[in-house]
Specification:
alpha+beta; 11 helices; disordered C terminus; about 280 residues; elongated; Alpha-Beta Plaits; 2 domains
């Protein structure tokens, strides 16, 4: 009987000591949490995609509450989420003009060809690491869909061997750009529809051998531009959007039609019409 009493007393004493220690530790290391942080977290979509530049929605909420990130910092949520967060934080939720992804490659199966029959993981990064040039153009889209896999909005699909962005679904999160091992995807303001769909930096004759829709560096586009907004560097045309007025003259004169025209309709409509 005495053994039971002693055991009970020891357990009780240990429990009291542990309890006191936990209370002391809790007070010693207590960190005040801004109540706005949990309110902001409830506003966020919860994708934990990392498109905002933070580890997840919890980290994003903490950054917004601390004033280290803007209320409009979630690219997936867009303006509706920004408005809710702004109401919590008591700030302006104004967003910049929306950005969308743009694939700098027009090398579909109709204009270029496979150089090798790739057998392996259907992933662009794996193909690049293998050291094999799957298509004739070593700069072009591999068409395995690493960009489409990471897109939280299902805004990219592979059609005829090249990535296609559905602009009306894209939220400009940039995850596809990070996933592309060849760096073919840029984020451009949605109003900038005049863009060069090529990344090949070889000379014109070499480009024509591997892709009939590639930029040949002929400089006809630069001669048409009245605003000095398009230049050819390393045999590849590029547009300075700070000067471009979206007039489309460069697109009209491009002999290989690698420059998209102004006010192009959403890619989704173009794709649906062709299927």
């Amino acid at each position: 009987m005495s053994t039971v009493i002693i055991t009970t007393a020891v357990i009780t004493l240990v429990g009291v000591i542990v309890g006191i220690a936990l209370v002391y530790t809790g007070k010693k290391f207590h960190v005040d949490v801004d109540p706005r942080e949990s309110a902001v977290r409830e506003c966020l979509p919860g994708n934990n995609c990392g498109a905002c530049g933070y580890a997840g929605c919890d980290a994003m909420a903490a950054a917004i509450a601390a004033g280290e990130a803007p209320a409009s910092g979630c690219p997936v949520g867009g303006q509706p989420i920004a408005d809710k967060i702004a109401a919590v934080m008591g700030v302006d939720a104004a967003l910049q003009e929306k950005k969308v992804a743009f694939v700098r490659c027009k090398g579909s199966c109709d204009v270029t060809h496979n150089q090798a029959n790739y057998i392996g993981v259907r992933d662009c990064r794996s193909a690049v690491l293998s050291g094999i040039n799957v298509t004739d153009c070593e700069y072009g889209c591999l068409g395995f869909g690493s960009c489409a896999t990471v897109c939280p909005q299902d805004a990219i699909r592979i059609r005829n061997g090249v990535a296609i962005v559905e602009r009306n679904k894209c939220v400009g999160c940039g995850l596809c750009a990070k996933a592309c091992p060849r760096g073919l995807i840029d984020l451009v303001f949605v109003g900038n529809t005049v863009s060069v769909q090529c990344s090949n930096k070889d000379k014109g004759p070499m480009v024509k051998k591997v892709c009939s829709a590639g930029c040949i560096g002929c400089m006809l586009c630069t001669r048409q531009c009245e605003f000095d907004a398009i230049h050819v560097e390393n045999f590849l045309a590029s547009i300075d959007y700070s000067k471009c007025t979206q007039c489309g003259k460069c697109a009209e004169k491009c002999p290989v039609k690698v420059i998209t025209p102004p006010a192009v309709k959403p890619v989704r409509e173009e794709v649906d019409d062709g299927e």
